[in-house]
């Protein structure tokens, strides 16, 4: 039986191995190792109608226990694709125009949340603490609170949280807000997101606010900012070895000494890839001397392929990429390399280390760990320049070393790309050092420890009331 139970919709697959786990996985695995931990969630499997449901997959990896469950086709459609990714994801990214709500999705969401709460309750020990992750599982706390009233339950939201006037577009906003009050501690990425949630609880539920603490009926929840980060040394080491890897050496040979601009994003409309392509095209228009001299490589593995918006985005970007290359390519130069596939973390970090410019220009993003990974991947003797959107959570920490853009201003982004490509080495180094100092000051280990310590110090809050 485990003392720390982490639950997230997606669980890192064991076969991904050391060095291939995502940044969040690395951080959480550390917290779990020291807490005799268990990580639960969806294993990625879908059980078709009429098929028998297989038992959970249980395994241990790196000193941590895992238990993953399949989703039925109906749960996958209504809970994951439907309410999580066609309702909450666009809503939390301020894209109400992309929301596709219906009641079947809503009931699937609450059903799966209850199911996971029941599964957790069977594994709870006397000393257990539970840490729930992300927008897929907001409602889990409500159910688990009923099943295990005294267990400290924390929640961390990895995405942004919208202002109250945007949130109330959701038909079930009250139910969703009430779900937040099932937790003892809620962690948000930035102060802005934190303030939005607190205000929504105040306006939407009439909850009372006292500093970080929100009271609603007999519940009391602390809402604080914990900006998620990366393991700086791990990323730097991966970048150094990745730079020596075969793919990285092949990339370097193919560039023929041309500086490279890099973007690495899941293929998602929140990432602003369309605007970024337009800004690159404008750079080549406004500064013709960069033609034939610079290569932009955009890595964008497909994501959420059953959501219509993502299918349309993919087709749209293929058109734009083809247009740019058709317009500017020479027989021996392709301006834009657009790759709909993923690579291991080591290879990606090695690619980033070679880049002169990193483009991280989301229209809205909870944190964006790629921005932090780009910085930690750079070599001090020749660091690349980070161009970051002021709408990414990471800008609160990296904004004084990066060039900060508005992704809706295509000309502004083009000017910034030119500035980054021509920035003198001394300025690049000075900016990079500033960002590295910030990253070293608050890394993924601090993030996990701070959250767990805060959660452990809290339960008394609900005993008082
Ligand atoms: C975002 C979410 C994560 C999610 C990831 C990949 O970063 O905050 O919770 O796992 O996207 O999306 P997917 O739908 O493939 O899990």
UniProtKB/TrEMBL annotation:
* CDD domains from the UniProt entry: GT20_TPS
The alphabetized list of GO BP terms reads: trehalose biosynthetic process
Show the InterPro entries listed in the entry.
Answer: Glyco_trans_20 (IPR001830)
Record-level Gene Ontology MF annotations: alpha,alpha-trehalose-phosphate synthase (UDP-forming) activity
Q: One Pfam annotation, family name?
A: Glyco_transf_20
What SUPFAM superfamilies does the annotation carry? UDP-Glycosyltransferase/glycogen phosphorylase (SSF53756)
Q: Which organism is it from?
A: Halotalea alkalilenta
Name the Gene3D superfamilies for this protein.
Glycogen Phosphorylase B (3.40.50.2000)
The organism's taxonomic lineage, starting at the top: Bacteria, Pseudomonadati, Pseudomonadota, Gammaproteobacteria, Oceanospirillales
Q: Which family does it belong to?
A: Belongs to the glycosyltransferase 20 family.
PANTHER family in the record: BCDNA.GH08860 (PTHR10788:SF106), TREHALOSE-6-PHOSPHATE SYNTHASE (PTHR10788)
Q: What is this protein called?
A: Trehalose-6-phosphate synthase
